[in-house]
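hey so i finally got around to running the thing on that chain from the lab meeting. sorry it took forever, my laptop kept dying and i had to restart like 3 times. anyway pasting the input first so we r on the same page abt which one it is
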Amino acid sequence: MIPVVSETDLLALFETGHEVLKAEKVLKQANISMRLLPAPAGLATGCALAILFAAEQRPSFEAELSAAGVPQKALFRKVQDIWSAA
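ok and heres what got predicted. didnt touch it at all, straight out
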């Protein structure tokens, strides 16, 4: 099943699988709605997993990960089937 991604979603990439799984745990504890999914082909360079979340949650998303010491590698937004840096 292909996940539905809207233009109001952001995709966070991480360097390692450990980082993405720690981020998932931190975000769930903070009640930030998100989905863990495979990173799109061409974007994944370190870890093959990514976290999809609503753009409106970006401040909370970044604050929680920063407080937990979990670095995100990059953020992307999908506009008309093209991923670009957010």
